[in-house]
Each structure stands twice: as C-alpha cells, then as structure tokens.
C-alpha cells in the first residue's frame, strides 16, 4: 500500500507503486481567502457543447469531413482503452502527428459516448514524436529568411508545432493526475480531455492549410520548450495549471492578433481566418486553467494571486508582454496576477487607504483626548 500525503487532513491509499513520486503538491504560501474574479461567461456553454466534428476547413470555414475523408478508426483505439486515462496514454504514445490528432478526437468521442470511467494509468515519460521536425534548441531554429519557407508557411508551421504539443500537454494532465480524481473530480478530467480535443482540431486545420500551400509539418526544425514546461510541473497540479494554461496558453492569447495581422500583411487571408478562429477558441482553454487553479487554491486555503507568483519563481516560469488585456480579461485572469503595473497600482491604492484609515484613527484619538482634557478641566475643583 502506498500512502500519498496530500495535506495533513487529506489522504487516500491503494495507489499503484509507480504513482508514489507523483504527489499532489501545493505551495506553502500563507492561508488567505480567494480573491474574487470573473470567470469566462462561456465556460458552461463550452462544457455542455456537443462533439465538434468540424475538423476540415472548407471554403466558408470549419466543417465536418465528408464521407470520403473520414478516417478509419485505428484498431489500437478500438482494441484497447477502457478508461479516459488509458485512452490518453495511447494518444501520448502515438508518434505520427496526424494519427495523434485523429486518436485524440476519437478518444474524447469514445469517452463521451460510452460513459467510460476516468481510470488510472501511467503516462509515458515523454510523448512519442515523429522523426521530423528535428527538435533543436531555440538558438538553432532558422529565422524566416533562412528557413526556405515563405513567411505564411513558416508562421503556420510554428503554430502547428504549438498545437501538436498542446494535444500532449492536455492529455498528460489527464493521465498524470488521474490518481487524484477523487479530489479533483470528474469535471477536471472532462475539461482537459475537451481541451485536447480542441487542440487536435486546431492541428488538423494547420496541417491541412500547410498542405494546401505546398508544405508539411516537419519541414523545418522546431524546439521542445513547451514540453519542458510540462515536465517541470509533473509533480504539482497547481504548478501545471500555472505553467500551461495561465502562462503558455495565455501567451497564445497575446500572440494571436499579431499573427493574424502578419498573415493579412502577407496577403494570406485564408490562413489569417484560421488563426483568428484558433485564437478565439483558446480563450476557453485559459479560462479552464483559471477555474481549476482557483479551485485548487480554495481547496488548500491558499491565496491565488500570491500562490501564482510563488509558483512563477519556484518553477522559473517567465511572463512576457505585451499582454492582450481584453482577451485575458475575458478568460478571467486577474490582472494583478501578471501585470506589475496593475499590482503596483493596487499596492499604492492599498497603502493610500491604510494611510487614510490611520489618519482617521489619529483624528478620533485626538478628538477624544481633547474632550477628556476639557471634561477634566471642567470637573476640576477650584483652587
């Protein structure tokens, strides 16, 4: 029997041995009530939405695949996987990008349609990857002029790489933290499986468009930074929420409009429309991260803002501007979590209020002392 310590009052047992070192850790910040925030207004509608089969980008936008284009269900998915965690592990173990994308959608579909349990499963140490693109350090990635690709293909290839990684990041969250479903609840895993399904659709659009303009995913090298951020948070579900949805995916909200403008400037309006749609749908993924980060902090009686900032330091997570405030606000990320100017403004306002309150206290004390002094002189017997 393996006992996994969650908090002094939260334990559960009977976990497989390989989960011994995957602990549900949280920051040691001082206890505080959760700050109020406005969750994304569309979160519940997104959760209740039917399966999205619009995996092909037609002349008028996304649409379902035609009968001749519908892929056969891989035998591996039909033959194995009796739980969401097992299906997620199968996706993570698939190297071919397009097959991974299809498996991701089929896994989410099977789980929804067949009512499969969350289950328990051990994720692979790293997701399977194709031979190409070659993974190199960021310094070794060629710039657009030396890549051999036109700018629209270069930028689209980078986005495809992000979306493929996002499939694995979401499924790793489902599988890696499946031992804690009694604490996190079914909705946590439903949300991140849904995110994985969205990301698989985004990759399908990017891959299709690359092929339309004469290129393929894997034509140029790519980096592995996104998976490194995932690895750093493999033992801490709060850190995973901070690192992936609240930092990496939120960065996508910032970059989306700039990427759309570059595509329009290049004259590729079809790709710009695809990118704009992807950026719009990413708001849901950030909102999911905010929701569950707040849930975890509330569960552990931690202050979300200070906990987020402590995690940034502990896990060396970097926040980069400029920020897309409108998209971040819509997703529900409080500005004081990431914007130092907003934080400083709040601190100044807080200090001003404290100063005003102290001044009022001093005034009242002075008034009381003065009144007591007058009473004392009135009641003093004549000499």
Poorly predicted sequence stretches spanning 5 or more consecutive residues = 1-23, 26-35, 343-363, 365-380
Compute the number of structural domains.
2
Q: Could you say which structural class the secondary elements and strand pairing correspond to? A: mainly alpha
Shape: globular
Helical residue percent band? 55-70%
- Mean pLDDT comes to 83
Could you describe the 3D structure shown?
Residues 60-71 have a biased composition (Polar residues). InterPro entries: DUF455, Ferritin-like_SF. Residues 52-75 are annotated as: Disordered. Strands 1-2 form a two-stranded antiparallel ribbon. The protein has 2 domains: 4-34 and 41-66 and 80-338, no CATH class; 345-383. 59% of the residues lie in helices and 3% in strands. The chain is built from 14 helices and 4 strands. The chain is mainly α and 383 residues long. It has helices at 43-48, 75-79, 84-92, 97-114, 151-176, 181-184, 186-212, 225-232, 237-266, 269-299, 304-314, 325-331, 335-338, 340-379, and strands at residues 4-7, 10-12, 56-58, 61-63. Strand 1 (4-7) and strand 2 form a beta hairpin.
């Amino acid at each position: 029997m393996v006992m996994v310590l969650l908090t002094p009052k939260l334990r559960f047992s009977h976990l497989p041995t390989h989960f011994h070192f995957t602990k549900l850790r949280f920051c040691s910040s001082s206890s505080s009530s959760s700050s109020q925030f406005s969750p994304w207004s569309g979160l519940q509608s997104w959760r209740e939405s039917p399966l999205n089969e619009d995996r092909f980008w037609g002349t008028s936008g996304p649409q379902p695949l035609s009968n001749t284009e519908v892929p056969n269900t891989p035998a591996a998915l039909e033959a194995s996987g009796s739980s969401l965690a097992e299906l997620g592990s199968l996706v993570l173990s698939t190297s071919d990008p397009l097959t991974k994308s299809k498996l991701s959608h089929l896994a989410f579909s099977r789980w929804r349609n067949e009512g499969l349990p969350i289950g328990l499963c051990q994720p692979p140490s790293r997701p399977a990857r194709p031979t190409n693109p070659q993974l190199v350090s960021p310094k070794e990635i060629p710039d657009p002029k030396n890549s051999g690709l036109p700018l629209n293909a270069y930028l689209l290839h980078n986005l495809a790489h992000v979306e493929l990684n996002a499939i694995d990041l979401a499924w790793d969250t489902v599988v890696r933290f499946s031992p804690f479903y009694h604490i996190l609840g079914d909705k946590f895993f439903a949300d991140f499986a849904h995110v994985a399904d969205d990301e698989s659709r985004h990759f399908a659009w990017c891959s299709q468009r690359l092929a339309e303009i004469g290129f393929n995913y894997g034509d140029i090298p790519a980096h592995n930074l996104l998976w490194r951020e995932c690895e750093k948070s493999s033992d801490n579900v709060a850190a995973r929420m901070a690192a992936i949805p609240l930092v990496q995916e939120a960065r996508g909200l910032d970059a989306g409009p700039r990427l759309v403008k570059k595509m329009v400037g290049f004259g590729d309006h079809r790709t710009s429309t695809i990118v704009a749609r992807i950026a719009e749908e990413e708001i849901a993924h950030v909102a999911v991260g905010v929701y569950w980060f707040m849930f975890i902090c509330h569960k552990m009686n931690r202050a979300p803002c200070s906990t987020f900032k402590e995690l940034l330091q502990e896990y060396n997570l970097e926040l980069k501007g400029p920020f897309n405030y409108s998209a971040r606000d819509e997703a529900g990320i409080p500005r004081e979590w990431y914007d130092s100017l907003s934080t400083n403004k709040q601190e100044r306002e807080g200090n001003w209020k404290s100063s005003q309150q102290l001044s009022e206290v001093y005034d009242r004390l002075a008034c009381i002392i003065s009144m007591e002094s007058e009473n004392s002189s009135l009641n003093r017997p004549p000499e």
